[in-house]
Amino acid sequence: MLFIFDMGGVVTTTANFYPRLSKLLGISLDEFYQLCEGEGAFDKRGNILEAYSDGKISPEDFWKIFSSRKPHMHVNTPWFHWLFHPEPVEGTAELVRDLKAKGHRVVVGTNTCQSHYLNHLERGDYALFDQTYTSHLMGISKPDPDFWKLILLAEDCKADDAVFVDDKQENVDGAAALGIHSYKFQSAAELRKAWAQWL
Q: Rounded CA gap, 54 and 45, in Å?
């Protein structure tokens, strides 16, 4: 079997730094998200967070566009990298190792941006897996069906021979719609029980 793990909220904590980031920028969290929305050529919604996650713009591009939407604001500090401090989720790494010991292929399938990807590389978080599939390199994010189709194609795997876990229901539903065995993450212990047939 091919096991596809989401990263944030499953392997590591999500490390939601946006409240701290907005405070450092001197704006409210709501205003931060509003400035991320808008007209743009990068995607149909003009959302620069989504464009950044899909690898359509660089960190420098993100802050240039963001700053242009707020008079008198100029940001060139790599906050996405510096403020990102996720922690391991208890039991997940052990579960991954046990699956690999049983001969399964275990990969990461995650929505992320360049800064967070580099942070995880520095920490060695991806070394646990056989392969890493990230939205910013794939050019597409969950829950778009093409996200999983690309992984299945690269892994030469049929949907019903794949297992996916994520902490977001919309992503679980998206993978399940393709015929992938899909699970919403509650804890590694609960997942271990659900996956007993493969362990």
A: 13
Whether 115 contacts 91, CB under 8 Å: no
pLDDT in tens, 137-146: 999 999 999 9
Q: What percent of the chain has pLDDT over 70?
A: 95
Q: Where are the beta strands (DSSP E) in 34-161?
A: 105-110, 131-134
The one-letter code for the residue type at 61 is D
The sign of the CA dihedral 117, 118, 120, 125 is positive
* Burial of 161 (C-beta count, 10 Å sphere; 0-12/13-18/19+): middle
Six-digit token string for 45: 């919604």
The pLDDT tens digits for 10-62 are 999 987 889 999 999 999 999 998 889 865 444 444 689 888 888 999 999 99
Q: What would you measure as the largest C-alpha separation in the chain, in angstroms?
A: 58
The Cα 108–Cα 19 span in angstroms is: 27
Distances (CA, A) of 4 to 30, 134, 155, 172, 176: 33, 12, 11, 11, 12
Whole-number Cα distances in Å, 185 to 6, 16, 140: 9, 18, 22
Q: Name the DSSP letter for residue 88.
A: B
